[in-house]
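Let's practice the habit of predicting before peeking. Look at the sequence and jot down your guess about where helices and strands might fall. Then scroll down.
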Amino acid sequence: MAKKPIKLAIAGLGRSGWDIHVSGVRGDDRYRIVAVMDPLAARRTEAAAELACETYDDYGKMLRATDADVITVATPSALHGPQTIAALKAGKHVVVEKPLSTSVREADRMIAAAATYKRHLMIHQNYRLFPICTFMLALLKSGKLGKLTHLAFNSSSYSRRNDWQCLRANAGGLLNNHGTHALDQLLALVRSPIKDVLCDMKHISDAGDVEDQIAMLLRAENGVTIGVNISTAAATVEQAPEWTILGTLGAATIADGKAHLKYYDPKKAPKIRVRKTTAVDGRKYGNDDVLPWVEEACDAVGPDAGSFYDAVYATVRQRKKFIVQPSEVREMMRVIDICRKQNPAFPGR
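Done guessing? Here is the structure:
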């Protein structure tokens, strides 16, 4: 056993709470789940039997009774803000599921509460730790592709979703769900605040009253452009690459976990000069430039960044900087707010 395991209380035992957060610390002696909260009795019974922890049907009751060090908020999205602030006020560190909040204004209140009560606010943007994301970060750092000019993300499928995330009242919708993961990774790669936003959202096939298709074009202050296409209403037979990275010296695409790179070393490339004459013999345009292209195919697997709860332990017990800073997620929430203002049919809660 770890000398001082982190005592964890988990609010919400749905897919995220049980399959991600309970599973994330199951068998890890650095953690001990001391309490859970869920409105469904069957879930509480299951947790009590497996985890030997206290169970509650009310968040406020759990918060008042538990001696947990960290509260994990894995409840529906509309509850993240008030429940996180309540936990911070109670002196608890907080892990909160994505999306952080329903608006940038609410995000600011959450971040301010963490600062006021001197507690860690750790947002579950766990895709930042995934091998594809660490691969892309390492690729850009290597300089193989030159200076980054454009990033694109694509995710297309067709389904008719009908769960709680299809309802505006629950802060559902594709932007708060898959969109937060994509935007978090894209902003981490670009490393610059967003200057311009153009976003279109539609409701096509899902039940409920929120968007299930998003097309977005962003431009960062450093000049990099970002394209985002996310749809659960696209019955395409062939998929575009999930990720496209363009640089001044080459490009990379990633699909099905495989990366394909094409780039050249500018030191090995012949010099070219512009031909100013407009009348060219043979009516030939362009040039006979032959670049020393290098092409690579590899698994899109980057350095191992550990698990999300490795990062939580390092922050709470070892005082290390958390891998995802609230200020970074706040920038994402600002972009999401702009998207919602441009699409008033799908406002935030």
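How did you do? Residues 129-306+334-342 form a domain with the Dihydrodipicolinate Reductase; domain 2 fold (CATH 3.30.360.10).
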